[in-house]
């Protein structure tokens, strides 16, 4: 058991795979377990879950810099990105980073838009020739950070995927047109939670293509019959929630939103850059470290990592410690 930032985690030593699957706090795990137990006893009714959905929605907004009324809920990043892709004019020119996660890029290609891949660092210079820039704030494969200041200055509509950033990187993304993110990685929530924050102008032009009862102006009176009567705010884009996933997110996300962001950033990047220094590499300022090393020595040493783009990917989060750094260094010595 480890303690970090006032929470406890039943995370094993050497667990450096948060970029794939985050480990919940004991508080989050307990909340989900108790909800499942109530389900098993027939003790819950659907309206019970409205509060955790609202709590998690508002907390995601605080984490990325958006009011709750401009945050929609979904189940996956790709499903929410697809709403943006479907709202662009036919044949829109979309600029993306080469090697970015396909849940961000595939929806635009599937819609038939003109999607251009360029190196991550070239995005700001190439943005002016496009209708939208879609990019991950932090690259999944290797942890590189997008130049957000330069993208903002480019003056082109932007969709940011904060999945690999929210939870360790301080974010103020109120300037972006759309910000999407999922909960099961760095936000340490169950899989089945995702959110889309929209600027006021972007919300007005995002089509509610998954319109359903939960996207209604009052979900408990829009269960049956026409006419269409959707919510006036971002809830019009909502997907019916994965109930127990939001129970966990309603514990995890407010906790994240309450933390000292500078302290979280210093802890996570300090460990990652400490590993880089031990390997003779320069600091990168990212919580993700990508190494061109064989994975077998790490696996034998009890290090949980992943392989992405042919390299070992290590992710340092709140529950990571200097012992994890040393374990990797010993394995690779």
TrEMBL record:
PANTHER family hit by this protein: CYSTEINE DESULFURASE, PYRIDOXAL PHOSPHATE (PLP)-DEPENDENT ASPARTATE AMINOTRANSFERASE SUPERFAMILY
Protein name (record): Aminotransferase class V
Keyword Cytoplasm: no
Domain Aminotransferase class V residue range list: 128-279
Pfam short name (any one): Aminotran_5
Provenance organism: Actinosynnema mirum (strain ATCC 29888 / DSM 43827 / JCM 3225 / NBRC 14064 / NCIMB 13271 / NRRL B-12336 / IMRU 3971 / 101)
Molecular function as annotated in GO: transaminase activity
Keywords tagged on the record: Aminotransferase, Transferase
Gene3D superfamilies membership: Aspartate Aminotransferase, domain 1 (3.90.1150.10), Type I PLP-dependent aspartate aminotransferase-like (Major domain) (3.40.640.10)
């Amino acid at each position: 058991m480890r303690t970090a930032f006032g929470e406890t985690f039943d995370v094993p030593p050497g667990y450096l795979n948060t970029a794939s699957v985050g480990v919940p706090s004991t508080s989050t795990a307990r909340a989900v377990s108790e909800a499942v137990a109530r389900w098993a006893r027939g003790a819950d009714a659907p309206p019970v879950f409205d509060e955790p959905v609202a709590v998690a929605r508002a907390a995601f907004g605080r984490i990325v810099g958006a009011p709750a009324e401009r945050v929609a809920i979904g189940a996956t990043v790709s499903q929410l990105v697809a709403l943006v892709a479907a709202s662009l004019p036919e044949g829109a020119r979309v600029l993306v980073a080469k090697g970015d996660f396909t849940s961000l890029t595939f929806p635009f290609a599937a819609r038939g838009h003109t999607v251009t891949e360029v190196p991550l660092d070239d995005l700001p210079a190439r943005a002016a020739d496009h209708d939208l820039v879609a990019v991950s704030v932090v690259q999944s494969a290797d942890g590189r950070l997008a130049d957000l200041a330069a993208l903002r200055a480019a003056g082109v509509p932007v969709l940011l995927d904060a999945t690999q950033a929210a939870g360790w990187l301080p974010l103020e993304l109120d300037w972006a047109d759309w910000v999407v993110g999922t909960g099961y990685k760095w936000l340490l929530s169950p899989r089945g939670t995702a959110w889309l924050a929209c600027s006021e102008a972007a919300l007005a032009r995002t089509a509610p293509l998954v319109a359903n009862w939960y996207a209604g102006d009052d979900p408990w009176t829009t269960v049956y019959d026409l006419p269409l009567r959707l919510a006036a705010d971002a809830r019009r884009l909502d997907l019916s929630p994965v109930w127990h996933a939001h129970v966990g997110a309603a514990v995890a996300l407010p906790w994240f939103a309450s933390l000292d962001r500078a302290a979280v950033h210093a802890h996570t990047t300090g460990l990652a850059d400490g590993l880089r220094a031990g390997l003779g590499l320069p600091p990168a300022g990212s919580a993700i470290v990508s190494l061109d090393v064989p994975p077998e020595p790490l696996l034998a040493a009890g290090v949980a990592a992943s392989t992405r783009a042919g390299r070992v990917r290590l992710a340092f989060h709140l529950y990571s410690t200097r012992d994890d750094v040393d374990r990797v260094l010993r394995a690779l010595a």
